Amino acid sequence: MKSVIAFTTILGAAVAQEIAPPAGSFVLGAWSPGSGLPGSKINANGGSFWLGKDPSSSCPAVEGLDCTAFPGTRTVLVGGNDTLSLDVAVPGGQQVYVGPNGALGYTPPHSSYMPTGSVTTGFHRFRSQSGGAPVVMNFQGNSFLACPDATNSGVYQIFAHLVVTDGGNCTFFQMRTYTAEGINAWQY
Ligand SMILES: *[C@@H]1O[C@H](CO)[C@@H](O)[C@H](O)[C@H]1NC(C)=O
Ligand SMILES: *[C@@H]1O[C@H](CO)[C@@H](O)[C@H](O)[C@H]1NC(C)=O
Asked: Is residue 169 lining ligand 2, measured as CB closer than 6 Å?
């Protein structure tokens, strides 16, 4: 039987003092010293977010559309004041959500589809007054987890919380955001 494990962590909890984050777009990084997580760049790929995968960005072959303006080499986001989106050029945008299984996900291009029970609010980006004043992001007051992908060694999927029987191999990390130029991709 499935049980719901509610993880909370010191990394995400009890932020007494905070100040507004810088304006504009940003990339995501996983900060977890000593955890052995690969690299630090979090990328959007196939509707989910990952460490150890490149972005699954694309640009359609449409007459008059200059795809050199959309290299898609980085995963850039905007928002973090309750809602969160990928910073894209595709009409309609791409919204970030937390799925019913706790996974961080995003809507496909030209679609608002997300699984029933997904949550699109509760993202909170702010500059912490501790640890060198990093600009961090929480979801509903908690930090995020990276869970090893069952089929790809060195690849970790990003979750906001877990609905699993055994989350023992997942690693909590502090989601840090870094100001970045957007738009980098037409779509992810
Ligand atoms: C976040 O949204 C609230 C409500 O719309 C607004 O009052 C606040 O100024 C916003 N904060 C930032 C940092 O943009
Ligand atoms: C956790 O990692 C151990 C050691 O690699 C492995 O034996 C176990 O199956 C993993 N558990 C899950 C739930 O993936």
From this structure: yes
Query: Which residues are registered as beta bridge partners of 77?
Result: 26, 86
As a dihedral over the C-alpha atoms of residue 106, residue 46, residue 114, residue 103, rounded to 10 degrees, the angle is -70
Kindly report, residue by residue over 37-51, the tens digit of the pLDDT.
876 799 999 999 999
Q: Ligand 1: which residue has its CA nearest to atom 14?
A: 81
pLDDT in tens, 82-139: 999 999 999 999 999 999 999 999 999 999 999 999 999 999 999 988 778 899 999 9
Please give the distance, rounded to the nearest whole angstrom, from the Cα atom of residue 81 to the centre of ligand 1: 6
Nearest CA to ligand 1 atom 7: 81
Segments making up each domain of the chain, as ranges: 17-179
